[in-house]
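Deliverable D4.2, example record:
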Amino acid sequence: MDDSTQHNLAILFADVAGSTQLYDTLGDICAESQISDCLSTMIAVVGDNNGHIVKNIGDEILCHFPSANLAASAACTIHETLADKRSDLKVKIGINFGPTILKQGDVFGDTVNVAARMVGLAKQEQIIVTGSFYDSLINPDNFNQRKLDSLKVKGKDHLVDIHEILWKGDDTELTCFLSAKSILETKQEWSAQLKYHGTECLINRSHPTVSLGRDNQCDAVIHSQQASRQHAVIISRWGKAVLQDKSTNGTFVTLNTNSSTAYREASDEIFVHMEEFALPETGIISLGAPAKDNPNDLIYFKYL
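Output generated by the structure prediction step:
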């Protein structure tokens, strides 16, 4: 392929989950050795499926494939190979398909940006793909999958369909998911309200994403120095407001309180770090520190 040309490609990001904690637990030398072995395994699988490595940075690889099927096959094989090796390391994968600019061995464009958003949504051992990717599969029935939701993705004016490829081949979770979906479709429109320093934000089906952090581009700009610039996102998912923590210090959620002083006596405080948590009916969010240590920058939420 020539440089500065555009092709329809499958873009795959694969990220080793929990690598930061591994360095802290095992020490630099042992952790680097395990991560390096995991990356080598992924790179070999990509090559076996006619993929091309674009970048190998730290604990993540970026690669592209000429077809969606090859990318899906590679993603499933990565997880299967690591499981067969009984590796302690787990990987999360995000994939998109569409027009991609190839220039000097690198990839650019909206397709790449959205693929990066997909790996950000994935949890360990998950393969999260866009609707565009899934629609590009030849014989998609060869891959067990479930549609998760249609979400607002940063930088996109429209909702993006999100699917998960179920590489383990177990449809138990799929059955439960579809049953929950059929029930939720009968519910009335819902909203969750966030309050911070007199400012209110709503999250619902028509406004399905609210970002939290110190960055001025966030929907709710939190002034606490404990907060990361892009700290967390709250998304609408099947009738629930789901918190996705993306921060260094984590997020603390105090459950079932709607008074400004109740956090002082509350004992049910959940720590969420680099994972998802479905918010309860009402409570308090504290970015980067427990609520009792962060009284001036608390976010109050409740379902309406």
